[in-house]
Design a protein that fits this description.
Elements lengths: L1 E4 L8 E4 L9 E10 L2 H7 L15 E9 L11 E4 L2 E2 L13 E2 L11 E5 L3 E3 L6 H5 L2 H14 L7 E5 L4 H12 L3 E6 L2 H10 L3 E4 L5 H9 L2 E6 L6 H7 E9 L12 H6 L3 E4 L5 H14 L5 E6 L3 H9 L6 E5 L1
Parallel strand pairs: 10-11, 10-13, 11-12, 13-14, 14-15, 16-17
Antiparallel strand pairs: 1-2, 3-4, 3-8, 3-17, 4-5, 5-9, 6-7
């Protein structure tokens, strides 16, 4: 089969022939129709991710058709259109991932290929209203956003929500999920164009986080927030405390701007704030995500679609953070 292979950190992704995976009992072979990029794919290609191995086939997000099964128990999946849950081996405690938990695409070979091997337990029927590209755009970002909003922050329709850094795939999906839940949502981004696109999706307002007074602008626009979803951290994180209403929840799942700075502890306990970390999600949360997007007919935002052979070009685009929504590969 053809696959996009990462041979070393200092080499571009290349399309090459590799062996089609052999199946064990409980595994299935999915013919990939579309795959989507995540920020982790970029970090892996530049050698800044834990546990990198070479050669590797990256890709956590994918949708396709089951063409082969490893045991009779999974025959009902044959020829079914599916999307893949990329959060593997979560463990028995829904509060946290087990030590051996993993994400499809490293260390397991991922979806940037004509075929991918996965355990049948990670398959879900593709929502009928989604085409291949939009189905592939949903899994990792959708699962991360769903757990952040519903499990961790426990959002309700009365909550006022801030999405910090809305342009990426997960931030954009968080905006869509929160809006579908009935929340009033505000956003920040680094460009006026992304703020405009977020408003078109339904955001009430947004500010450019590059402005020196971005926090003051948000306070003027919104007053305060009940839930803040942040994937950047860095020095700006301290300003989020002033934007919190009493009892607010701040959920974070990334650190692209660095670590959390020194924080004024009194603001945290006097306001009864919660600072919550999260990453990925449980099998039950993935099922709940699929049910939720089907109920509300949520269409993930796609920035650009590339053919599989241009995966290196797609990853380089992600590296400059110019996209709004997901970057997708078609196979």
């Amino acid at each position: 089969m053809k696959a996009i292979v990462l041979e070393a950190a200092d080499k571009p992704l290349v399309l090459k022939e590799v062996e089609t995976p052999a199946l064990k009992a409980g595994e299935v072979l999915v013919k990939i129709k579309a795959a989507a990029l995540n920020r982790r794919d970029y970090w892996i290609t530049v050698g800044k991710y834990a546990g990198i191995k070479y050669p590797s086939i990256l890709g956590s997000d994918g949708a396709g058709v089951v063409t082969e099964v490893g045991s009779d128990a999974d025959k009902h999946w044959l020829n079914k259109e599916v999307i893949i849950n990329p959060s593997h081996d979560w463990g028995n405690n829904p509060a946290y991932r087990a030590e051996n938990a993993s994400i499809l695409g490293l260390p397991e070979d991922g979806t940037f290929a004509e075929y991918v091997k996965v355990k049948a337990e990670y398959l879900h029927t593709k929502p009928a209203y989604l085409d291949w590209e939009h189905a592939a755009a949903l899994p990792l970002g959708g699962l991360t956003a769903y757990r952040a909003l519903f499990t961790k922050a426990k959002i309700t329709k009365n909550d006022k929500v801030l999405i910090v850094g809305v342009g990426g795939g997960t931030g954009t999906l968080a905006l869509q999920l929160a809006l579908a839940a009935g929340c009033q949502v505000f956003v920040t981004s680094g460009t006026g164009e992304k703020l405009h696109l977020a408003k078109q999706l339904g955001a009430s307002a947004g500010v450019n986080y590059k402005a020196q007074d971005w926090a003051e602008q948000l306070h003027h626009l919104a007053g305060g927030f009940d839930v803040i979803v942040d994937s950047a951290l860095g020095e700006g994180f301290a300003k989020l405390l002033d934007l919190c209403n009493q009892g607010a929840r701040i959920v974070t799942f990334g650190a692209t701007a660095g670590n959390i700075p020194e924080l004024p502890g009194r603001k945290i306990f006097w306001k009864q704030l919660q600072i919550l970390g999260t990453t990925m999600g449980t099998p039950a949360e993935f099922s709940a995500l699929i049910d939720f997007v089907c109920e509300h007919k949520i269409l993930p935002v796609i920035d650009e679609i590339f053919p599989l052979a241009e995966a290196d070009k797609a990853v380089k685009k992600m590296g400059v953070s110019s996209q709004f929504g997901k970057i997708v590969l078609t196979v």
